[in-house]
Fold this protein.
Amino acid sequence: MVCSRNGTRPVSFCMKTFLCFGLLLASAARAQEPKVDPNRVFTTQLHWERVGGAPRSATDRWASGSLAILYRDGTYAAVTASFRRIAKDAPISLSLNEGYVIRLGTWTKTDDNMIRIESREVARDAVVQRAGDAEAPLPGPVSARTCRLDKPSVEHLSDAIHCNGGNGLTLTPPDAPVDLNDLPRIVDALVKKTAPR
């Protein structure tokens, strides 16, 4: 196909064709992005603090904590990172720019109100360590937790998840929508990378 003023097709036809092709590629890429059900996103309790150096009147706040996603297919993903919020009633934004640790694994329902989570550390970025501590190799060892579901539900899984092991872990639905940024794409890439071949 020749696109020119003197060629066989008008330039406007060719531009429309290229535009449609570009939109088709963009929609195909978007369709492949992993979908996260917001009813299956849980966080540890986030203690909001004023951003260092900001005036007392500033509404921008940050917190550190963990976020877990329990995918319907049994995949478990958790990230320990920092979170930002520009106002009390604004959405929460997951910040992966200040260091994070990602755990990946599986979750299974063992009873009506119990689940088992097996996961291991698979990625980390800019994690601050104590002097003299060596960074552990990745992927880390598998750890297992048994967790109790408070008021289990098909729609949102649970009002809270209480896990044993380690320091214990309590996860609840966040009090506002969470912008996950690149986390679903990172999790998808890690799942593909660590899947048995």
